[in-house]
Amino acid sequence: MACPAPPALRGTMREQEPMARHTTWRVGGPAQRFYEPADRDDLAALLRSLPPDEPLFWLGLGSNLLVRDGGIRGTVIHTTGRLSALERLEGDRIRVEAGVPCPRVARFCAQERLTGAEFLAGIPGTMGGALQMNAGAFGGETWALVAGVETVDRQGVQRRRDPAEYRIGYRSVQGPPGEWFCAATLQLESGDPRAARQRVRDLLERRGATQPTGLPSAGSVFRNPPGDHAARLIEAAGLKGASIGGARVSTKHANFIINSGGASAADIEALIERVEAVVLEKHGVELQREVHIVGERLP
């Protein structure tokens, strides 16, 4: 059900929006409220208009995310296609807003004769999510490129911040609390555009050859333990192809769980828990989740 946003806002507010429409696993109950801002100023106006205790959830492409079947209370802010500016700056820098898909950034940089961002082609999410978790692929990590970020807080206050204000780790970013990423400036290097485009193509082909890209999934479910790979541990535990309901451990890449048809969020979460338990029992390794699980369980 679509309904007009309050008069001061220019975006679109919908109530009881099915999150299965907006997640790469194609599961998830409804969002109580679902807002698509017109632009960054409109987003700031929305934040100022909300009660201070309103639960907020930020959504990009819906990868790396499991929304439970009971849905999400509060307001979901959907940035994809909204915070979508992508531009070349002076020197070898670009500015990219949070709603821009990472593969688009990789292609843009190659077209602009800039190198260093090719690995972003392998990240099936937006720059906002990549900044939030220091997403990486094929040996590259997001924050290795970051020269500065732009944020917004609950009061709609927008700020520019330096990377030195954040503590960056493997799939981990810690910074000033109560702020969300709106945009980033990335530092690249000048290079051969043909070589950059070829590397993007090669990485996409490699991704397609090693990952179940044609089926609903959320990317890697678990972080790689130090000195090892989650996929190796899961496969060695005999879990390739294991299933609960419509959820199944991929036979192509064991660190992916796919929706093979008709899966519920509860099926996927139960399979995640089963994988964790079996790997701990057989290998003594406690897998850490890379995928985020949010929302309410059904009664």
Give a verbal description of the structure:
The protein is an alpha+beta fold and 299 residues long. The chain has 3 domains: 2-78, Uridine Diphospho-n-acetylenolpyruvylglucosamine Reductase, domain 2 (2-Layer Sandwich), CATH 3.30.43; 86-210, Uridine Diphospho-n-acetylenolpyruvylglucosamine Reductase, domain 3, CATH 3.30.465.10; 230-294, Alpha-Beta Complex (Uridine Diphospho-n-acetylenolpyruvylglucosamine Reductase, domain 1). The chain is built from 6 helices and 21 strands. It has helices at 40-49, 102-111, 127-133, 193-210, 230-236, 265-283, and strands at residues 2-4, 12-18, 30-36, 56-59, 65-67, 72-78, 86-88, 93-97, 114-115, 136-137, 140-141, 146-153, 158-161, 167-169, 172-174, 179-187, 189-190, 243-244, 247-249, 257-259, 292-294. The strands form 7 sheets. It has a 5-stranded mixed beta sheet, with no helix packed on it. It has a 5-stranded antiparallel beta sheet with strand order 7-8-16-12-13. Strands 18-19-20 form a 3-stranded antiparallel beta sheet. α2 (102-111) packs antiparallel against α4. The protein is globular and about 50 Å long. The two termini are 24 Å apart. 41% of the residues are buried. The model has no long low-confidence stretch (mean pLDDT 93).
Give the SSE map:
Blueprint: E1 2-4, E2 12-18, E3 30-36, H1 40-49, E4 56-59, E5 65-67, E6 72-78, E7 86-88, E8 93-97, H2 102-111, E9 114-115, H3 127-133, E10 136-137, E11 140-141, E12 146-153, E13 158-161, E14 167-169, E15 172-174, E16 179-187, E17 189-190, H4 193-210, H5 230-236, E18 243-244, E19 247-249, E20 257-259, H6 265-283, E21 292-294
Parallel strand pairs: 3-6, 4-6, 5-21
Antiparallel strand pairs: 1-2, 2-3, 7-8, 8-16, 9-17, 10-11, 12-13, 12-16, 14-15, 18-19, 19-20
